[in-house]
Records
---
Amino acid sequence: MTTTALPDVTVENPKEWDALAAEVAQSSGLLFAHSLADLTDFVARAVVAIYAADAAGEGGSELLRDVYSTELLARFRPGQFTMVPPTKVGLRLMAVVQDEQSFRLRVKVSMTNALVVAPVRMFWDVAAGIPTVVASAKCPQCGAPSPTEELVCSHCGASLAVAQIKPFLIERTEFFA
Ligand SMILES: [Zn+2]
């Protein structure tokens, strides 16, 4: 079994990150749960998974469970990528796309390898979680079970609030020249 090295991801416009994160925070009233480093880590893993899945054929969608949304997984078709897996990825932050409770980061991904002349370029819409507060099922201080949605332990008064953060997932992809 071989392990695939992660490609180097270079953000072309890192200064845009703060503006995009602020836009999410302003619209949602909650802090954006992810950092730019989280996004670049996700993109590196996603590129490896997408190329592996593409090469694996029909069963390849299994490799995309942590990368693609359920809707995008259902439309998975292998054989879209002709080149060898990329070693370098250029990432451009484009915009926040918003509808009701869901936020997506639109990014432009340019994937290259020393063996190819032209990069493969795609737009990705990446679902971006904002934290939601949920009640822990068990008190972290006294261990009492907490079957209700109460955010304070009825035995010892400790906080039961836990921030639940949704991971990144790609919801839409589009090739462009
Ligand atoms: Zn307690």
Note: The mean pLDDT is 89.
---
Amino acid sequence: MPHRFPLAIRLLHWTMALLIIAMLFIGAAMVSTASPAYASLIALHRPLGIAILLLAALRLVLRFATGAPPLPADLPRVQQRAARGAHILLYLAMIGLPLIGWAMLSAGGYPVRLTAGFVLPPIVPRDALAYGLLRQTHGLIAFAFFALILGHLTVALIHRFVRRDGVLETMGFARAAALDPELAEPEEADEPEVEPAETPGP
Ligand code: HEM
Ligand code: HEM
């Protein structure tokens, strides 16, 4: 069994964590401003949100293809199940929230513009009621996502500083030797000294 997630998954995990946290703050700033900054914030919010959707899809494919390191065997079953459930919810939010954002703008009849010349097609028909519902759902799920991330962060820190069981390190970049000395590459066996060949005398 591997001792940590494959490099591609670890890189995706931390890149996406930064993007998602930035997006939560961009979203909150967007809805609490009436200044001209709104236009720049939403122009950033749409393409970043769609990038998160694509990265989440790629991450799920990689995750199914490569599996995950096992949780510590002494972790109670209920906590193993809770971890699994929380991870599934995190994946659902990473995929669902951007899709709801896209659907919300489609229902409102707003273009989902990613760059000046690139607009995504609508994914639901125009409907004012649906727009209102999706707008509320987007806000509620974003809030729940934030709470879930805080819980996830807390549990990760408990693993690191209370249980000290190596779970945080499965998502980290420390050298294998620092995780578990037994994983260290075996030291190169010293080459036997080769005696210089005797040069025949003149
Ligand atoms: C992981 C991705 C996303 C996150 C974390 C996120 C987060 C947020 C948050 C926190 C808000 C403020 C909600 C509130 O207080 O009611 C918001 C609003 C909004 N989001 Fe997202 N969002 C994401 C993806 C998207 C996408 C992909 C789109 C569209 C393509 C989108 C469009 C919007 C719009 C239009 C608003 C409302 C702006 C307003 O009413 O003034 N979001 N988002
Ligand atoms: C936006 C923020 C974050 C999201 C969406 C997120 C999402 C996820 C998901 C979905 C997994 C499950 C991986 C899998 O089995 O495929 C995971 C694992 C993990 N995450 Fe996060 N994460 C975030 C932030 C953080 C932070 C801030 C930390 C720690 C400081 C952290 C530490 C970990 C660790 C240690 C694992 C492996 C745990 C295990 O295998 O049970 N994550 N994360």
Note: The chain has one domain: 7-72+87-175.
